[in-house]
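JOB MANIFEST
job_type = single_chain_structure
chain_count = 1
residues = 115
[input]
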Amino acid sequence: MQVTIWHNPDCGTSRKTLAILEETEAVVVDVIEYRKQPFTRAKLEQLFHDAGLTPREALRTRGSPAEELGLIEGASSERILDAMVEHPILVERPFVETAKGVRLCRPQEKVHEIL
């Protein structure tokens, strides 16, 4: 099974999710460090749609510039998406995509839903 993880190596949950994937038999993992290879707007829209999340639900508020950018209160989905493309750290992590779907793997055990 081909699996893609949008990974931040500084994030414990992301590291734990990647470890689960690497320990799972018959899984081939494509690791995208999204701070080095930023998201496109189209990819974010697809991931959020497939995961059943809104941009606001996928917005990382802790440890990000979300508040300084005015994204916490009243920002539109369009504005949040624009900010996420410009500042990938605003995207909650990790997102994992397989042929069975997409999940925001917080907690990391959510990855089992799509394996």
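[summary]
The mean pLDDT is 97.
Helices lie at 12-23, 41-51, 77-86.
exit_status = 0
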